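Meet our chain:
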Amino acid sequence: MSHKSFNPLRVERANLRLGRHSSVLGVIANSLAIVAPIVSIALGVWVTNLNSDVAHLNATINGLHQEVASAEALLSDRDEIIEDLRADNRELLAALPPSIPPEQVPDARNIGTVTLAAGGDSIDLNSTLPNFGNGADRIQKDTLQFANGVLTSLWGIDVLQLREGEAAYETCAVATGYAPMKTIEPHRLDGRVCIRLQSGNYARVTVNASEEERVELTITTWDAPL
C-alpha cells in the first residue's frame, strides 16, 4: 500500500492563499462596519426630508382646500347678490309703464303753442292747424276751453298722470288707468299727463304760463294706434 508524500511547499501556498482571503474578508467586513452607519445616517436624513416634504405637501393641499372652500362661499354669495339684483330689476321693470318700441312710434300729428283767454275761444285737439283750430265750436268733441281757472272739455277727456317721465306716444298709447274728466287744473299739466281723446288720438298738453285771464299751452298730439 502506497502513501502520497507530504509536500510542505504546497501546504504553505495554501496557507498563504487562505491568509489573503481572510485579509480581504476582513477588509470587506471593516468597510461594511464603516459604511453601514453612513448609509443608515443618509437613509435617516432622506426619510426625514421625505417626511418633511410630505408634511409640507399635506399643508399645501389643506391650504388649497381652504381656498377652494372660500372661493365657493364667495361664488355662492355672488350668485345670491346677482339673483337679488335680478329680482330688483324685475320689480323695477314691472313698475315702469309699458311702452311701444321706438320703431313703431309714429310722427306727431300736430305740435304747437297756443294761448287761451279766460272765457274765450276753444281749440280743437284733433286739428292739424298751427293754432289747433282756435275758435272751434265748443260743442264739438275734443275741444278745450279755459274758463274759471280750469281747462274744460264739454264731452270729456281721459287723463292719466305718469309717476315719472314725459308723456309720450310710446307710453300713453299702451298705458292703463285713464280716468274720464271734463275739467283739469292747469298746474297739473306739467308734461307728465297723458290725454286720450274721444277720437282715440293722444295728446300731451303742457302749461307754459297760467294767469287768471289767460293760459299758454304747448300741445303735441298723435294719431290713434292702428
Remarks:
- The radius of gyration is 53 Å.
- The longest helix spans residues 8-95.
